[in-house]
Amino acid sequence: MPQEQYTHHRSTMPSSEGPQVYKVGIYGWRKRCLYFFVLLLMILILVNLAMTIWILKVMNFTIDGMGNLRITEKGLKLEGDSEFLQPLYAKEIQSRPGNALYFKSARNVTVNILNEQTKVLTRLITGPKAVEAYGKKFEVKTVSGKLLFSADSNEVVVGAERLRVLGAEGTVFPKSIETPNVRADPFKELRLESPTRSLVMEAPKGVEINAEAGNMEATCRTELRLESKDGEIKLDAAKIKLPRLPHGSYTPTGTRQKVFEICVCANGRLFLSQAGTGSTCQINTSVCL
């Protein structure tokens, strides 16, 4: 009770200092810092806006796309040269109508065909030194679909009507070759040559060699063999010459003639013997030794 009376008495006493006023807000150095940060923020916003407008202007941003890139109903359209620093994934790449499509690279261009498990099935690598193709089969066809060239692990097929080799050294076959016809271009020579080994021509029904507009020459270092197992060897010509056949010996007392007969030794060797009234082959058998 005494405490309450004291409090009431104190509150009813008149104040000589007057009502106290409390200021609300930021004053002093805090206010100056706030204005500085607001000004700095406005400057950054203006600079950012100016940079954004400059980038849009330089990159040529439009409603249809950016720079040489245009967005169309069919997809993306690139005009001019384009550079891709990362892998490009696309369903289809086409050039503009009437223009070529170029792929340029400082090292190589690689095209991979993948399956559903992302395993490489076919690969084409075009590098500075070679063009490499990896796959089960390689084919080259005409526009109509005719096969021109085919290669796989078993065989190589040339489907063109004529195979022409323009190299000065011709064509080298380390093993055998099977063909129904070998001929040269018109007015050109045909040479079948084996520099260090033998040359064998075989056919189940015969081998025919024709030179309709020139000479035919067969040359070897050791021996030339014409063999027919079941038939005959026929030399059909207006003139048949054997200029280097050895001559058999003859007696000096006999009359020399310009007529000779061809004799055959038991080993198959041929030689010339001076003709007489009878056969002189038995006399000149020294050639067969």
UniProtKB/TrEMBL annotation:
Coarse class of the primary localization is membrane
Classify the protein's membrane topology as the record does.
Answer: Single-pass type II membrane protein
| Parts of the chain that traverse the membrane | 33-56
A Pfam family recorded for this sequence: Sarcoglycan_1
| Annotated Gene Ontology cellular component terms | cytoskeleton; sarcoglycan complex; sarcolemma
Top-level taxonomic group = Eukaryota
Question: Which terms are listed as keywords in the entry?
Answer: Cell membrane, Cytoplasm, Cytoskeleton, Disulfide bond, Glycoprotein, Membrane, Signal-anchor, Transmembrane, Transmembrane helix
UniProt entry tagged with the keyword Translocase: no
**Record has Transit peptide as a keyword:** no
**Locations listed in the record:** Cell membrane, Sarcolemma; Cytoplasm, Cytoskeleton
Q: Name one GO biological process term.
A: heart contraction
PANTHER family (alphabetical): DELTA-SARCOGLYCAN, SARCOGLYCAN
The text of the family note is: Belongs to the sarcoglycan beta/delta/gamma/zeta family.
Could you identify this protein by its name? Answer: Delta-sarcoglycan
* Organism, as annotated: Neophocaena asiaeorientalis asiaeorientalis
